[in-house]
Amino acid sequence: MEVSELGDGRFRVEVGSERLEVDARLPDGGPYSLLVGGRVYLVDVTADGDELILGMGPRMARVRIEDGRRRAGAPVTAGAGRQRVVAPMPGRVVAVFVTAGSRVEVGAALLVLEAMKMENEFRAAVAGVVTEVYVRPGQAVDAGDPLVVIG
Amino acid sequence: MLRKVLIANRGEIAVRVARACREAGLVSVAVFSEADREALHVRLADEAYPIGPAPAGESYLVIERLVEVARRSQADAVHPGYGFLSENARFAQAVRDAGLTFVGPPVEAMRAMADKTAARRAAAAAGVPLVPGSREPLGSDEEAARLGRELGYPVMIKAAHGGGGRGMRLVATPGELTSALRTARSEAALAFGEGSVYLEKALVEPRHVEVQVLADRHGHVIHLGERECSIQRRHQKLIEEAPSPLGDAALRTAMGTAACRLVAGVGYENAGTVEFLVDGERRFYFLEVNTRLQVEHPVTEWVTGIDLVREQLRLATGEALGYGQGDVAVRGWAIECRISAEDPTAGFLPSPGRVTAWRPPGGPWTRVDAGVYEGATVPVHYDPLMAKLVVWGPDRPAAIARMAAALDEFAVAGVRTTLPFHRAVMRHADFQAGRLSTGFVARAFPQGGPGPLPVPPTLAAAAAALHVHRRAALREPLPTTAAPSPWAMAGRPGVRPPVR
Q1: Interface with A, mutate which of B356, B408, B419 (most A CBs under 10 A)
Q2: Which of A30, A55, A70 sits opposite B468 (nearest CB)?
Q3: Which of A51, A115, B329, B487 is the most exposed place for a label (fewest CB within 10 A)?
Q4: Structural domain harbouring B45
Q5: Do B235 and B173 share a structural domain?
Q6: How much is the pTM?
Q7: Is the pLDDT confidence value at A28 over 90?
Q8: Does any domain span residue B174?
Q9: Residue B126 gets which letter from DSSP?
Q10: Domain ranges across chain A
Q11: With an 8 Å Cβ cutoff, are B458 and A22 in contact?
Q12: End-to-end CA distance of chain A
């Protein structure tokens, strides 16, 4: 993961093989205001040991820091070049878009999980080949159940 | 005429009362334990006095100390808030014995209603339907077992001297009765200093509907409509609304009339709430009377336009109500969500700590009664309620949409909160359809409460990377600049350039 400053509060952030251009305001007291592709994200960052807790409105993520300088580790559930998607909460698989052997780009839709009457779409964070698909449409899953593995 | 009011409480209700005092031109006196010196209610009051160590039993519950501080500060009234000593007749008596005004009902009315079995007898005398059960506190376990057989299971064990869900146990079969009695008694003794319990038939998934009453010293008693408080967990309310989705005007009138008759019969004054259970056939049964202001009073304030704390202060001086039942109209719909420092994914375990981000929502008909601020600490010693988010809309769907939007805007970091739970409920089909009962939470979230939604992994990684980049940049020395400060150029006296 690499961060380059483009000036005027704009950054290029490389995550795996994906490149994001982010307009970022990063005040010390937080929250961070990020514009990515025109979309607005407000992020509260709290340190928790060697992990960061990111709060974005009703959403939350934990990210493990592997090198404290200019690099940050991938999300706890993903490894470099490899992504293991697990269910973050109990729900029901509504749709699965890939099979073992599918080649996916970063951002490709993998599956849709319905939980608490809401639909959540899971996308590939890495480019690669899907090696495992553990679920099929209609299947109920628990929090922590593996769904799809890439790479 | 009141001049100075001591607020014998803490947290958001102490802030609420301090604001009402300010509006009424009264001086507010806050009290604080050692854990609350920097609390919001202390910041907002006119005066503040320490009352002891952090544990409530050594501070907010010590009657003698509160009366002593009231005297020393020359307050002429005491507002007890809710919880703590608000329904303690001995406290009300001590305040009055000290020559001060207690903002609440007469001591005799408090005594009549505080003993829950005495309250049931008063309700029966007023012709108010009761949940079948004991009229006296239980004596022996044998007596309890016999009564249980008569009532038919399931039965509910309840504390005779307190509410809030403490000392309550649902008993499904006779075999569980003895051990349930033991734990209920000890819990009641811990919470209220008195372990007496009584028995009631447990209705199957009833709705909890309560009626707000107001009474003056001249015998005028009116009700301000009902509130539905069925969304509870372990008998602790989480979400309340006014009016009830039952939408039954005849039921509202019947319950309101019964509530007024009951409190009038015990010479009630000031604000109070009569709680009922409503079964599947829209029959209502008396539960108890709370001789104080309730947490969820804002929903009634929204739909009636009546400021309940203002009325409490006014009525405490002996002023007449000044309006009648025909002047009270319920308009639109209000919903309240209690935002607590609890983790819904961990059985609502309290999550005390420092609130590092606190950004409540704003906008039309959106009210936040908070007891914390950004940077404040939620202490471990007290109830983890941080704020109440209360919205109003012209009808129920509008209120739900407004609440859902407000919840999405509400950002809190540093502690776990019940926000994800409330967001999920607003989107739940049963809630939207008004299909409520006290079994709602167990049925909607059988595996426990929902947590926050996930963040797309790429975005999370990018945000984290930017954070790490920013922290690293801050450790590097900043470059100096030869350009003159724009503030100095503007020549404004008394304005110093920002420190770099």
Answers
A1: B356
A2: A70
A3: B329
A4: 4-103
A5: no
A6: 0.79
A7: no
A8: yes
A9: T
A10: 2-64, 78-150
A11: no
A12: 18
Same-domain status, B73 and B140? no
Q: Which of B106, B117, B56 minimizes the C-alpha distance to B85?
A: B56
Q: Is B356 inside any structural domain?
A: yes
- Give pLDDT, residue A33: 94
Spatial contact of B498 and A49, defined as CB atoms under 8 Å apart: no
ipTM: 0.73
Instruction: Report CB contact under 8 Å: B461, A1.
Output: yes
Provide the token pair at B450: 């929902």
More confident residue, B161 or A71: B161
Residues from chain B contacting residue A18 (CB–CB below 8 Å)? 458
Question: Do both B136 and B256 map to the same domain?
Answer: no
Chain B residue with Cα closest to A67: B468
- In the predicted model, is pLDDT for residue B111 greater than 90? yes
Count of domains for chain B: 3
Res B395 pLDDT > 90: yes
- Distance CA(A10)–CA(A25), nearest Å, equals 9
Q: Which residues in chain A have Cβ-Cβ distances shorter than 8 Å to B453?
A: 58-60, 88, 118, 120
Catalogue the active-site residues of B: 292
Q: Domain holding B182: CATH number?
A: 3.30.1490.20
In a domain? residue B373: yes
In terms of domains, do B356 and B408 share one? yes
Assign domain A78-150 to a CATH class. Answer: mainly beta
Q: What is the token pair recorded at A59?
A: 């959403």
- Specify whether the CB–CB gap between B497 and A98 falls below 8 A: no
Return the residue of B nearest to A1 by Cα.
Answer: B465
Q: Residues of A with CB below 8 A from B411's CB?
A: 31, 42, 44, 55, 57
pLDDT given at position B259: 97
Q: Closest residue of A to B415, CA-based?
A: A46
Tell me if residue A36 falls in helix, strand or coil. Answer: strand
Res B122: pLDDT: 92
Distance separating alpha carbons of residues B326 and A105, to the nearest angstrom: 68
Residue B344: count of CB within 10 angstroms of its CB: 26
